[in-house]
Specification:
Layout: E1 2-7, E2 10-13, E3 18-26, E4 33-39, E5 46-52, E6 58-60, E7 68-73, E8 78-83, E9 92-98, H1 106-109, E10 117-118, E11 122-127
Parallel strand pairs: 2-11
Antiparallel strand pairs: 1-3, 3-8, 4-5, 4-9, 5-6, 7-8, 9-10, 9-11
Length: about 130
């Protein structure tokens, strides 16, 4: 099992920044990649960014590309999401997720159903 704990959410004004962290523990060696997703009220969970543990290859949704940066610290088993130039439409609960360690292609990493372990989520609210 992999346990994930997110932190770093909060309330910020439009144009501001936040950095989310996701600490992974347990059988982290079984995962190839980590993803960040978000879910706003009444909407489906959507992909934000993903990163592979080994090469640090990154993937971004068009909606966050150029504003958000995903990174990882392998020694700490922690993944970060630096969010800059935040907009009110970025308001959502943000979740980190660990993939199962196989079939970790571009399409799969953008799909919530590919991931097998999820954190509890952290609220991000951007005021206008």
């Amino acid at each position: 099992q992999v346990q994930l704990v997110e932190s770093g959410g909060g309330l910020v004004q439009a144009g501001g920044s936040l950095r989310l962290s996701c600490a992974a523990s347990g059988r982290t060696f079984s995962s190839n990649a980590m993803g960040w997703f978000r879910q706003a009220p009444g909407k489906e969970r959507e992909f934000g960014a993903a990163i592979t543990w080994s090469r640090g290859r990154t993937f971004y949704a068009d909606s966050v590309k150029g504003r958000f940066t995903i990174s990882r610290d392998n020694a700490k088993n922690t993944v970060y999401l630096q969010m800059n130039s935040l907009k009110p439409e970025d308001t959502a609960v943000y979740y980190c997720a660990a993939d199962p360690g196989y079939n970790s292609g571009d399409y799969a990493l953008r799909t919530p159903m590919h991931y097998t372990h999820w954190g509890q989520g952290t609220q991000v609210t951007v005021s206008s």
